[in-house]
């Protein structure tokens, strides 16, 4: 095998991906499977996640399973990990991808909504990681990757619930990294504006807003699910074996507006 290819060989690995029925999670599952990994996909949408897993297995030949789990239910997550280990005997890597948030003005939230966002976007990742750790510690180059968001690292009063939860997620990932090296690596992909189809519109954007965003991005386009999946693969690969505790910015160079008069 070409030495460069060996860096991205996931043969014999078992990768668990949460939120895997969505655009980014399913594309990540497909890419890991293409590189030889067996993949466990989980989502609250049982029918869709099982269908996605079956399709990826057919396309790649890697073994893929779809498991229903409510990311906000700790018992579900404990059972999820037990099912993956019962099926494959191990867990080599975890992609904490589940998460969602809608536009909420700064003073338009309340305790219940803030806590609900924190449970979905932050606590869910803590719980599934906790249950995976005994198995990850046994694996060479074990790695956990988190789906962060630009709203978690920049002032985002329009998304106060989601941005606060994602900020907590990033700090939590860094804490896990310093406590777990060198056994397990932890990194965050800080995601900018990605074309997630209907999910983007459901979050409160409209086509005019999305065009304005695209025009302002340095690379003059919004990201694709494949762009984000490539980052997950890199951070979990042998090519990144000395990388832990970082935020990898995946935002097309960010949004830039000239300060000079037009």
TrEMBL record:
UniProt-listed SUPFAM superfamilies: NAD(P)-binding Rossmann-fold domains
GO molecular function, one term: oxidoreductase activity
Keyword Transcription: no
Alphabetical list of Gene3D superfamilies matching this protein: NAD(P)-binding Rossmann-like Domain
InterPro entries registered for this protein in UniProt: NAD(P)-bd_dom_sf (IPR036291), Sc_DH/Rdtase_CS (IPR020904), SDR_fam (IPR002347)
Keyword terms: Membrane, Oxidoreductase, Transmembrane, Transmembrane helix
Protein name: SDR family oxidoreductase
Source organism of this protein record: Muribaculum gordoncarteri
């Amino acid at each position: 095998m070409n030495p460069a290819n060996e860096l991205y060989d996931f043969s014999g690995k078992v990768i668990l991906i949460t939120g895997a029925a969505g655009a980014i999670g399913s594309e990540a599952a497909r890419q890991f499977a293409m590189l030889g990994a067996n993949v466990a996909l989980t989502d609250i949408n049982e029918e869709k996640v099982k269908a996605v897993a079956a399709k990826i297995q057919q396309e790649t030949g890697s073994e893929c399973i779809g498991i229903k789990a409510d990311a906000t239910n700790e018992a579900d997550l404990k059972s999820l990990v037990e099912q993956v280990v019962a099926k494959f005997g191990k867990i080599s890597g975890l992609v904490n991808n589940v998460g969602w948030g809608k536009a909420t003005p700064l003073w338009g939230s309340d305790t219940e909504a803030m806590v609900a966002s924190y449970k979905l976007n932050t606590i869910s990742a803590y719980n599934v990681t906790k249950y995976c750790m005994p198995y990850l510690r046994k694996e060479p180059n074990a790695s956990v990757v988190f789906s962060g968001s630009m709203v978690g690292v920049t002032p985002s009063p329009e998304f106060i619930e989601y941005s606060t939860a994602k900020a907590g997620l990033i700090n939590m990932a860094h804490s896990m990294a310093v406590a777990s090296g060198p056994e397990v690596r932890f990194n965050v992909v800080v995601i900018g504006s990605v074309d997630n189809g209907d999910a983007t519109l459901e979050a409160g954007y409209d086509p005019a807003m999305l065009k304005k965003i695209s025009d302002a991005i340095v690379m003059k386009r919004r990201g694709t699910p494949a762009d984000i999946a490539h980052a997950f693969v890199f951070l979990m690969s042998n090519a990144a074996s000395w990388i832990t505790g970082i935020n990898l910015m995946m935002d097309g160079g960010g949004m830039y507006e000239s300060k000079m008069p037009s």
